[in-house]
Amino acid sequence: NSLNGTQTITFTGAQAILRVEGSFASLGANSNQTNTAHPDQTISFVTGGHIEVIGVGRPIQSLDGNQIPRAQIGSAGNQKITGATSITLTAGNTPNGRALITAQGDQHIETHQLTLTGGGGNAYDSYAAIEHAESDTMVMPIGTGGKQTIVLTGMGATLTLQGGSGNGQNPNGTPTDSTDDSSNNVAKIKSSFGDQFIAFTDTGGSI
User: Fold this and answer.
1) pLDDT, mean of residues 170-182
2) How many CB atoms lie under 10 A from the CB of residue 182?
3) Eight-class DSSP state of 159
4) Which long-range contacts (C-beta less than 8 Å, at least 24 apart) are formed by 54-57?
5) CB 165 within 8 A of CB 119
6) Strand duo 67-68 + 60-61: pairing
């Protein structure tokens, strides 16, 4: 993670793997961090490679008391990721799993295959999201907006968001609560302000 200044990571080996794993697995800035630190991060793969961000183990507790296993790529300043063959974010198997790509500043990501999956197993209330100038713990937009760009490269490129593979049911629902007796998993792409672009460079791409 880059909190201040500039961080540059370059992979020169063929099909290198960058793996981030933990209860709060984050590549880049914390999604709750505003643009005050202005961190810059550049990650590049010269001959292809893979990024795996996996939320596992004991989940953290958010400000509202929920247990949230998280897998995320975040930018609070300028983040650029290029050359990756695939990028995969997978949240843990406990409720409220979050698989996120989030930006409060400028973010540029290029890959052939991008996959986000929320909680699995018996999880519920999980989601997969690509968010710009947004925070899942705050109501109002945060950051300065900037530009979020995601480019899917090559023929047959794919962008997949699965709110959650879990089939658990929320035990805290009420008869009038939409989350009662349901998994309530969500997949979304959202921009609160600023510019958000998702583009395919070739034919045969899919979302």
Assistant:
1) 48
2) 15
3) E
4) 54/19, 54/20, 54/21, 54/25, 54/89, 54/90, 55/22, 55/23, 55/24, 55/25, 55/90, 55/91, 55/92, 55/97, 55/98, 55/99, 56/21, 56/22, 56/23, 56/25, 56/92, 57/22, 57/23, 57/92
5) yes
6) antiparallel
Using an 8 Å Cβ cutoff, are 181 and 136 in contact? no
The number of residues making up the chain comes to 207
- Amino acid identity of 61? Q
Lowest-confidence region among 50-54, 55-59, 159-163 = 55-59
Asked if 124 and 169 touch (Cβ cutoff 8 Å), the reply is yes
Mean pLDDT of the 41-64 span: 78
Burial 12-24 (b: 16+ CB within 10 A, else e): eeeebebebebbb
pLDDT digits (tens, 9 = 90+) for 99-128: 899 888 889 999 999 999 887 766 677 888
Report the candidate in 129, 114, 79 with the shortest Cα–Cα distance to residue 200. 114
DSSP labels, 117-144: E---TT--S-EEEEEES--TT-SS--S-
Residue 86 host element (H or E): strand 78-90
